[in-house]
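Hey team,

Filing this mostly as a record. A colleague (T.K.) asked me to run one chain through the structure pipeline before their review meeting, and I want the input and output archived in the tracker in case anyone asks later how it was produced. No errors, nothing strange. Just documentation.

Input sequence:
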Amino acid sequence: MGRMREVGALWIGGSLSWMEQLCLKSFVDRGQKVTLFSYEDIPNVPTGVIRRDGREILDTDNFLKYEKKDSFALFADLFRLHMIAQNPGMIWVDTDVYCLRPMTYDDDYVMGFELPGEARVNNAVLGLPADSDLLRAMLDYTADPFAIPPFLKPWQKEEYRAAAAAGSPIHVSQQPWGVWGPMMVTHFTHTLGLAHKVQPLDAFYPVTFPDRIRFLRKAEVVEAMLTPRTTALHLWASNKRELGLRHNGIPPHGSYLHKLLKEHEIAPEAAPIKGRGKRVFDAGLIEKLDVEEATRFADIGGTAQSLALAAYSKWECDIHLIDVDHRGDWPDHPSAWVAPYRAFLTEHGVPADKIHRDAGLADLKPADVIANLSGFGDVNKIRPLEGILQKSLHSDSRMITDIRKGSGAYPMLKSYGTCETLTTREAEGVAIVRALFRAGPQVAAKQPKEDSWSTIAAGLAGTDGFFRESPDHSFLFIKRSDTLVVTFDNLDIAMTKREDRRPWGFSFIEKQGWSMLGVMANGWTWYRDPWVWQQFDALRDAGFFKQFKRVVFYGASMGGYAACAFVAACPGADVVAISPQSTLDKTVVPWETRYITAWGRDFSGPYGDAAVASEAAGRVFMLYDPYEPLDSGHADRFEGANVTKLRTPLLGHRLGSSLQQMGVLAPITLAALNGTLTELEFYRTIRARKTFARYQRELFKRAVDRGRPGLARKLGRWVLTRGDNRYIRQGLLTL
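Output structure:
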């Protein structure tokens, strides 16, 4: 029996797709030691793969690329030579090389012919003696990035010599594909008379490059091509293009790749193929979306299956299929695309009850993420999109959309928000832009006048209350009893994300019979507006707050900041703040990297620094996640003796929504507003998080990230014996 060899690979470019996960895990599962080098953190490397810093081999930030193909393959060609030189006995493998059988070659020469005829040598699998003439020759050759390749055709070499003589030598990044790869390896192997050291075609490349698509055909097709000599099988990453363009980035059921994924328990929908070279596939668009959480994804016309699956895998959101035809008409029966779309999603783990068909304007609700690919504004006229957007947008919506030059899409979209160009292509001589659209405050302005906030608020205020507004903020007072709750909210969210179009907490406060002062911001202003300060000064000076026996200021995030800051207008009032900021003044909190939209606002004055202003409060109940570094940093700035910090581990920044989903927000809030909340009662109440999917997921993720697979498995078994958690169920497959 031969010696068991360690293999090494390199990855540059963010998270792995299922293809790299599959190949790396195959070595682990076959018992072959595998090391992955990288120059940055990779979040989804399979357990068992050894991680090493690429700078141990080449300490550089110059990642050579084939410029025409936007590929790091050129740098990988150089890296593998130095890896072999510095790690005697280690075999290089590309991250698209699958371990069919462990490589136990006694000879240090491990390379294979890639085409019939035993001439061309590939380097996807490459092992060489560290002191060999072949390795030294290639290291010497690659030391000069302007070297003229001796293996090019005579006319090419003549052109290169002429360019060098003219003072413009051809850099390797502009030279042909494979010039430091198979072309170079083949040349020096034959020149040094080492062809007898090369493994036959079936060792690594029984499925040749021209036949690579066979990996997407029935498994039996590939299995018939394998032999007992096949060990490390090159799957050809160039198959990613075919997978991305025609199979939503996931191998067809019954194919050889699908069979391998099942064997190694890799969930492809959790790590879809996102791109190939300069081409970004639909699933890869998920990384362009600056959305922290999404509960509703909408696809207009059914052309974004892979993006919908990626959205569900990331957020576990509901998927809404907006079933409208190319003219903007709503069909009486489901369109032909709806059933296969549903089948694709359910086939890859999306529960059927998370998929909805929207069959008319009445079904549309504001969505967090919208896809309009090859749809209205591109292949279809733009007019029908406006009616859909009026119902489907809120102020924080994001939409990936294709825009054909001259369609009129840009003027219409700019009335709702802004567009950022992602890619540009041409079709029949016409430019088509794939854009990221970000909705803005303009969405609220699109509401009919009778549905406007001014009309709604004036009706809510009645004769005993009042409503005051400025272009950017408003105050609504509703009088009910001698307990007043002052709330802070974002008008855009209230008007476009809530069916009742009321301030946050409105129904809860109304049910208790309390009075309410609702302060609304028309956008992410952090209430840093002199008009707002003047309103609080006027209410204080007029004795408005003194008519109430109890006053509580209440808000979350931006509203939490405001609750802590403006309580200074009513000294002695209590505060309930969820994930609040203390200030966004960069001279005070230079580590705060979020909320760039408000960095330029004035956070000075008596209501500026919430950590200081809140010292005037009676009691401050602060709920926050101590494992969110930025939220924890703000919490640390609140040092007053009146502050009670209530820790909610692993529930994230938007812990209000988490507590609400757990069913404990109402009792916690009621006790806090009543003034009866104690730390003991709070911590007893949030024990409910143990059965909350998000909390379980975060615990599981932390165990995996900290290299504790045994603990992760124990937690996973505990969770799955008591219910289901899709994230953990899929995560256990990769452990």
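Quick notes for T.K.: Residues 326 and 380 are 6 Å apart (CA to CA). The chain has a mean pLDDT of 90.
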